[in-house]
Design a protein that fits this description.
Layout lengths: L3 E5 L3 H12 L3 E5 L3 H20 L5 H10 E3 L11 E4 L5 H11 L8 E4 L6 H7 L6 E6 L8 E6 L5 H13 L3 E6 L6 H4 L1 H12 L5 H11 L6 H8 L1 H14 L10 H9 L11 E2 L6 E2 L12 H14 L3 H5 L3 H23 L5 H12 L5 H8 L1 H14 L18 H29 L12 E3 L6 H9 L3 E5 L2 E4 L2
Bound molecules: nicotinamide-adenine-dinucleotide (NAD).
């Protein structure tokens, strides 16, 4: 039977996602603050279908069928038949909660409630609307009809079955899914941060000019765009705001600290393409650099230079690309890719996502030529760790790895005891919270016992710790990072 999607917020993302679902055969009900705005969203979809028709990517009969599947909501009751509700309203917690509260009571019991938020905690949205188990993150990338990645985010209380069904729906819509836990920036916006930031720091240090940094990243490493030109495209304000939010919420790690040079661009109103001036003056052809750096010579001990050379040559896309690199270019590659790899390792070690999901997310969410883990394997884990140690000594402590090199090292028994204690406390709190909610719904019940069995393992301990506790028979895995306490 045909399935139905309701979209709340028919703006850039909402309209794009509605188009994706309708092209995949779903009926779509579009809603916005009023019918006129929702109709404007539908008009934009029709214009996009028209362009596909002109380019011969869609046949007339198909385009007509897609159009016929999209309707505009006249009243909340129009969402009553939806299997999936997706909100794509402005990035503001109060707005999202208010619009979801108005529609959720109308939905059928099996319906999934998804949010396209880029930065708000999915679990908090789910709890605020009283539906934490069926609320999930479904994070599309812009433009949604073109970008293939969807990050599927499990809040701490999202039911594993809801996560599974959401991933299946995204796959059926032709998307590539990466699963992640409910952390700041999820995968892409967390892992990509130091790739932009370290490029700004290389510029600040006077190692290379902006166009040289971008050229090295494109020509030697295979990125479609360099990190600095990409920040101009995204908007310096948007890119810097994401950095500040992820940095603050992750406890201000050095590697993700805002770059003073980028902050200065934002203060000056040089926001990139949208203002005609950012890292580059886009009014000129080719765009001219706006930031003049005082070139400083690279000073490295010969043994450090040898380590960085090895990394850069192995990380470059081919021998020809690596051959003519100057020392400054090699250090740039080591710093920018080293920072990216380190953040990928930290994200994986924190249990946000698996190496495979992180690789998929970076390739399909931001068009990186390779996933970081595939790249680390190509360079060699030992070479990556030697390089990070060298950079920590020669450039700054932000590169200090603090991530165990890959290998099946058994977790420390004291760490296992601490993790088990943290798990018990969290389970107790979750049950108390659940019981108080059950009892508040039914004050005459005289005390209802919580049925919570499995909970998400606390994220301050790496997945290896929970796997070791499961092997020892202390916990049972329910998949997706959920565990049950065994007697
Ligand atoms: N634009 C991106 O690149 C991008 C990428 C991924 C995720 N997101 C996320 O997607 C969400 C939407 O972003 P966008 O760029 O599409 O924004 P947008 O401003 O283009 O669209 C938001 C829509 O919500 C509507 N709206 C506002 N108040 C409403 C209300 N009370 N009820 C119903 N609709 C209301 C607006 O009229 C507008 O049509 C945000 O959470 C954003 O963080 C954006």
């Amino acid at each position: 039977m045909a399935q139905q999607l309701s979209v709340l917020g028919a703006g850039t993302m909402g309209a794009g996602i509605a188009q994706v679902a309708a092209q995949a055969g779903w009926s779509v009900v579009l809603a916005d603050r009023d019918e006129t705005t929702a109709r404007a969203g539908r008009d934009r979809i029709e214009a996009a279908l028209e362009r596909l028709l002109e380019k011969g990517r869609l046949r007339a009969a198909e385009a007509e069928a897609v159009r016929a599947r999209i309707s505009v909501a006249a009243a909340p009751a129009d969402h009553a038949g939806s299997d999936l509700l997706l909100e794509a309203a402005p990035e503001d917690m109060a707005t999202k909660i208010a619009i979801l509260r108005a529609v959720v009571p109308i939905l059928p019991a099996h319906a999934i409630i998804a949010t396209n938020t880029s930065s708000l905690p999915v679990g908090e949205i789910g709890r605020a609307i009283g539906e934490p188990a069926r609320t999930v993150g479904m994070h599309f990338f812009n433009p949604a009809p073109i970008m293939r990645l969807v990050e599927v985010i499990a809040g701490p209380e999202t039911a594993p079955e809801v996560v599974e069904r959401t991933a299946q729906i995204a796959t059926a819509w032709g998307k590539i899914v990466a699963r992640a836990t409910d952390t700041p920036g999820f995968i892409v916006n967390q892992v990509a941060r130091p790739w932009y930031l370290e490029a700004f720091r290389v510029l600040e240090d006077g190692l290379l000019g902006a166009s040289e940094i971008d050229r090295v990243m494109r020509d030697a490493c295979g990125f479609r765009m360099g990190p600095l030109e990409l920040t101009d495209l995204i908007g310096q304000d948007v890119n810097a705001a994401t950095t500040r939010s992820v940095w603050e919420r992750l406890g201000r790690p050095d590697l993700l600290a805002p770059a003073p040079l980028q902050e200065a661009l934002v203060c000056a109103g040089d926001l990139g393409r949208k203002t005609g001036r950012g890292v580059y003056d886009t009014g000129q052809d080719p765009p001219a650099e706006t930031i003049t750096v005082t070139p400083r010579p690279v000073v490295l001990a010969p043994e450090d230079a040898a380590i960085i050379d090895r990394f850069a040559v192995r990380a470059a896309r081919d021998v020809a690309a690596a051959r003519d690199l100057t020392l400054a270019a090699r250090v740039t590659i080591a710093r920018v890719l080293g920072a990216l790899f380190l953040q990928a390792m930290r994200t994986q070690a924190a249990g946000v996502a698996t190496a495979d999901d992180i690789d998929r997310a970076m390739i399909h969410g931001v068009n990186h030529p390779r996933g970081p883990f595939e790249w680390i394997a190509a360079v060699g884990t030992a070479c990556v760790h030697d390089t990070l140690q060298t950079l920590a000594r020669a450039v700054g402590p932000r590169f200090a790895a603090q991530v165990a090199p890959a290998g099946p090292a058994a977790p420390d028994p004291e760490l296992l005891r601490k993790a088990l204690r943290a798990f018990r406390t969290r389970l107790k709190l979750k049950r108390l919270d659940d019981e108080s909610r059950l009892n508040s719904r039914n004050p005459l019940s005289g005390g209802t016992r919580s049925a919570v069995v499995a909970i998400m393992a606390p994220r301050e301990f790496p997945p290896a710790v929970w796997e070791a506790l499961a092997r020892e028979g202390k916990l049972r895995s329910h998949g997706g990072g959920f565990y049950e306490l065994l007697p």
